Please model this.
Amino acid sequence: MNEQEEIFSQKHKSLLNIATWAKYLASLALVVYIILALSIVFQKQAQFQQMQAMTGSFQGSLSYWESVKQDPFFYLVDIGLDMISVLLSGFFYFVVLKGISLGLNMIVETDINHRDKENQAGANLHKKIYSRFDVKETEELLRIWVANNRVEWSDVAFDVLEEILKKRINELPPQNAPILENHGDDLNTNLEEWEVKLLDDDNQPELYDTVEVLELKDNINKVAKAVVVVNIVVGIFSLQFVPGMFFGAFPRMEQMSGFLLNIFTTTLVVGINIAVTYFSLKALVHTLRILMEMEFNSRKAKS
Model:
């Protein structure tokens, strides 16, 4: 047990706890922002009614939904862009928190691998896997047990998993049919050579799922591209005279200076938003890639 504690320290447990919280917060953030996006319609309706009350035009005027029916294009674009912007924010927080969670797991895995090489040159694999599984939540261990993925986890890992679960619960749930082959062919077609090498390696990590990291990396790239498109579209429709142009109300000559200034300031703001968000996401992708390669290179062959 002392040997396990030397490898797996309290610092590792603290990092894994943070990683677990980040994983749960990622899902929570996504759910919250989906709810916020769905509430946009009610927020718009409340703003419409508040504006009517402030201008004293409530009586005898059109209701919100009657206004929508009269000018559906304007309202649909207005509501749609706001909903997409909120959803995109939710996906941004989701992938960032998910990336932090997986990144911390990879850091712990890498450090443990280095400690193994330095301090446990013929160490017992059973003890190593036990120390890593023992800090995981019972619910997560049960998911691994039921999935019975023999590609992702070794037979020794399942022996250890069974041992730990029997200490925590009275009866083990039945397992699915064992997964003996990697069915990620669709994923493999979009992978680089080093990523395929990671997936094909028999010595898979214990604290994170390689496929999950690669899928997250792909999703982050998609969110980064969506950030560019959505910010540009929102920026265009936020220009002072653009909504009126759809109804033939073009700016007059004496208004052109204000229109050009509005274009300049909007372009500047949109450009800064795109740069900060896009390059932050790309930096996260490259960080995950570096951490995954470092962890891979730190592994020792399993006996």
Q: What stands out?
A: The first helix runs from residue 2 to 7. Residues 227 and 277 are 7 Å apart (CA to CA). The chain has a mean pLDDT of 79.
